[in-house]
């Protein structure tokens, strides 16, 4: 089935450790996005990429890094510089060629600090 | 991006229509109105979108006022599974979505 796959579903990070969240899509979508959601809050944009080998910072990019080497993949690394990483992380994608911006979301990764 | 304003929460009896309002008084001519919902601990799900005309699909109807300054999402026969947070977003082109806190809809048996 077509869709967006995020892994792992749950992730634990130790102090000072970098962790990478995976996001893969087989929808042939051009643009991909990473959002962070804290309890009771809306989604906040971390990074987005509209084309391979290019990406832009969102509203809360500090402490995070991304890469877009393949159209299908947009991994997010939570670095040790992110002092409060505990949150629900959501990946989304959309077709750049569409006249409208309908984003499709993965099931999310819940990150906690040990 | 136009700022949107939604009520914090709403209740609806099961089987009744749920009408969720959204104010977007600063919307510009090329901005679409999108509705998404998020069921607890899941990723958001696209529901419907519109520009000027009213729209209907298998999930919901979207009513946009003639001046485009507000809209209403209608779930015609709400079920317990419609309990979720509903987000109204107004953007143009491929601008990243901006999610506010949305409306928490509770469908009550």
Could you give the count of β-strands of chain B?
Answer: 9
Low-confidence stretches of chain B: none
Number of helices of chain A: 0
Find the biggest chain interface.
A-B, 28 and 22 residues
Please state the average pLDDT score of chain A.
92
Order of helices and strands of chain B: EEEEEEEEE
Largest β sheet strand count, sense and barrel closure of chain A: 7 strands, mixed
**Beta-strand percent range of chain A:** over 45%
Find the count of extended strands of chain A (DSSP E, 2+ residues).
11
Q: What is the straight-line distance between the termini of chain A?
A: 35 Å
What does this 3D model show about the protein?
The complex is a heterodimer of chains A (about 110) and B (about 110). With about 110 residues, chain A is an all-beta fold. Chain A contains no helices and eleven strands. In chain A, the strands form two sheets. In chain A, strands 2, 4, 5, 6, 9, 10 and 11 form a seven-stranded mixed sheet that branches. In chain A, strands 1-3-8-7 form a four-stranded antiparallel sheet, with no helix packed on it. In chain A, strand 5 and strand 6 form a beta hairpin. The model of chain A has no long low-confidence stretch (mean pLDDT about 90). With about 110 residues, chain B is mostly beta strands. Chain B contains no helices and nine strands. In chain B, a hairpin with a 5-residue loop joins strand 6 (about 60-65) and strand 7 (about 70-75). The model of chain B has no long low-confidence stretch (mean pLDDT about 95).
List keywords for this structure.
heterodimer, A: 114 residues, mainly beta, seven-stranded mixed β-sheet, four-stranded antiparallel β-sheet, 0% helix, B: 109 residues, globular
């Amino acid at each position: 089935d077509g869709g967006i796959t995020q892994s792992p579903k749950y992730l634990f990070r130790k102090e000072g450790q970098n962790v990478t969240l995976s996001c893969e899509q087989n929808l042939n979508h051009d643009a991909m996005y990473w959002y962070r959601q804290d309890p009771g809050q809306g989604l906040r944009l971390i990074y987005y990429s509209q084309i391979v080998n290019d990406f832009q910072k969102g509203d809360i990019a500090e402490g995070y890094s991304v890469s877009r080497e393949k159209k299908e993949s947009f991994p997010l690394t939570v670095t040790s510089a992110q002092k409060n990483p505990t949150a629900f992380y959501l990946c989304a994608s959309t077709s750049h060629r569409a006249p409208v911006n309908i984003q499709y979301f993965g099931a999310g990764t819940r990150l906690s600090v040990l | 991006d136009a700022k949107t304003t939604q009520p914090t929460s709403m209740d609806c009896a099961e089987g009744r229509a749920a009408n969720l309002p959204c104010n977007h008084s600063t919307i510009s001519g090329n901005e679409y109105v999108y509705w998404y919902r998020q069921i607890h601990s899941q990723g958001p799900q696209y529901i419907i979108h519109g520009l000027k005309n009213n729209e209907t699909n298998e999930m919901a109807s979207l009513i946009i006022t003639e001046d485009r300054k507000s809209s209403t999402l209608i779930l015609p026969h709400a079920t317990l599974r419609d309990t979720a947070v509903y987000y109204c977003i107004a953007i143009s082109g491929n601008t990243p979505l901006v999610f506010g806190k949305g409306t928490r809809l509770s469908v009550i048996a």
